[in-house]
């Protein structure tokens, strides 16, 4: 023991004064806060009581997990603070003991504030002339962390963490109150789930994973002491980036304390101190770009999930609140993607090896009757790294703007803010379905010339793609051959606005200024070109719209999830406008057209695919007659191309699945794909439906009634 005197005579008075101050602070902590100078307003006391009430129930931010449909395979996570709440019974006693040894030796003896620790700290700080020792108990530290984590404004964060005597006194008052309501085990559990260990590891579960790739239940004394030693200063004692000298010294300090407190025998502590720190590092994935190589192509689906989530009022008032919930709410999200269908989509995306092409070819598969999206694939890599991408093909983009290939995170398949691509004659479905729903039969016939001048649409005069389309057409033959003039005549009869409004009811949205104007109530009646697909649409929208027809006219909102569970294991819910509570992940469906009209539309839509309708004649030829032979079961659908074949589409469906595929240049819509590539979307849909349904029983379409046939 040193013979150095405790203090010289000249320092005795300051030390005595320090002891007196310590006593005053401790006394202040032990009595109502009104006894503390300058703080004793009732409003302040009430505010602290409110915060204390919050602390009793507050849980820290927690990581949200995204699972494959098996509910077990983790694809990625969303977090600002990587954390998974862990019950204390699932933590090794080693980490419980190590954190007490590191941070608060008298944790089980005091009642939230340790008077001896406070006095010792004031004496030590007075002797050093600075802050050489703190007095925060584990309970006080938990108070500080809980106030920080529950803060909703920058000011509240500052108040929770600022280094002032006032904050310290408030902390003490709250710690004393907390200990009246929570057991030591509950406080320790919350503390270990809130503490920061460095490297974005918040809470003991994250720390165990990141530093040792294991769960808290299996931490050894050496590992527990290493982690417990980090809490005081995660950067100073970091065993990853430093030479481990400081980390080892801090760990050994914790082990010595564990031995002193009786948690370890002296021999066990000595043996543990002789071991090196052996790390087994894990980098937890975060966000869509972090999906591992085995599921890399699922990044676009994950991105769709994010965009869908940000539009759901169940998770907040605005996009910012909803995304905050995703990153902090601790949800368990099970995707609706079907691995078999996804694999088929990825395999059959045309130009799949041509990621060096500006032309994007993508496909989306939806499930009729639920709206669940079963697959999303595109000939691109989901990646934030655009360094090796060439410059954009758009001459107006500028010399330094990168193209979207081979890497991109742009929502090329829909669900985001991109307008999509002109969908051509796939839009003929909407006026035809509107006509059928209004009672017009499939046999409705017109003499359709090669060019038709419309008096209704102010002399607009569209032409057909081929002179072979001239003649008398019905809905079967007009749809099968894609006769433009027939559909302008049909559209005149029912009104262009009827098709526009029906498309909206089936989920289409107008995103460009031109489309918004043309679809407006004052313009829609004159939008004759609507039936020719001059509007932009996304494959997500088109797949789901056609899925509603396959489901006998029952439209279901597109949805990317099978289940969403709150952190407590209960399903995430929302309240409808009618006051009914429903699960967020449940399908949201409504009947848009009558079932007989939808069945009639399907009967006509069998003509383009080379299939045979139940009731009518396709007129001898069709635009995609190879589809029926490829799919090998009843199938309906529609081709679509735009002027100069700038984009090409095919939307096809069976009773089980609906798929939409496109090919276009997302950077430059004037860069025509050409007729030579127009078959790519047809093949992508046909082959994907074939492979996805392989081995399943063949289902038949329900034929329309004789009344709908006419």
TrEMBL record:
Transmembrane segments: 12-34
Domain Glycosyl transferase family: 74-258
Alphabetical UniProt keywords: Carboxypeptidase, Cell shape, Cell wall biogenesis/degradation, Glycosyltransferase, Hydrolase, Membrane, Multifunctional enzyme, Peptidoglycan synthesis, Protease, Transferase, Transmembrane, Transmembrane helix
Catalytic function, reaction form: [GlcNAc-(1->4)-Mur2Ac(oyl-L-Ala-gamma-D-Glu-L-Lys-D-Ala-D-Ala)](n)-di-trans,octa-cis-undecaprenyl diphosphate + beta-D-GlcNAc-(1->4)-Mur2Ac(oyl-L-Ala-gamma-D-Glu-L-Lys-D-Ala-D-Ala)-di-trans,octa-cis-undecaprenyl diphosphate = [GlcNAc-(1->4)-Mur2Ac(oyl-L-Ala-gamma-D-Glu-L-Lys-D-Ala-D-Ala)](n+1)-di-trans,octa-cis-undecaprenyl diphosphate + di-trans,octa-cis-undecaprenyl diphosphate + H(+); Preferential cleavage: (Ac)2-L-Lys-D-Ala-|-D-Ala. Also transpeptidation of peptidyl-alanyl moieties that are N-acyl substituents of D-alanine
GO cellular component: outer membrane-bounded periplasmic space
GO molecular function, one term: serine-type D-Ala-D-Ala carboxypeptidase activity
Penicillin-binding protein transpeptidase domain span: 363-666
Record region (Disordered): 691-710
Domain of life: Bacteria
Pfam families: Transgly (PF00912), Transpeptidase (PF00905)
Any one of the GO BP annotations: proteolysis
UniProt-listed InterPro entries: Beta-lactam/transpept-like, Glyco_trans_51, Glycosyltr_51/Transpeptidase, Lysozyme-like_dom_sf, PBP_transglycosylase, PCN-bd_Tpept
Protein name: Penicillin-binding protein
Originating organism: Micromonospora aurantiaca
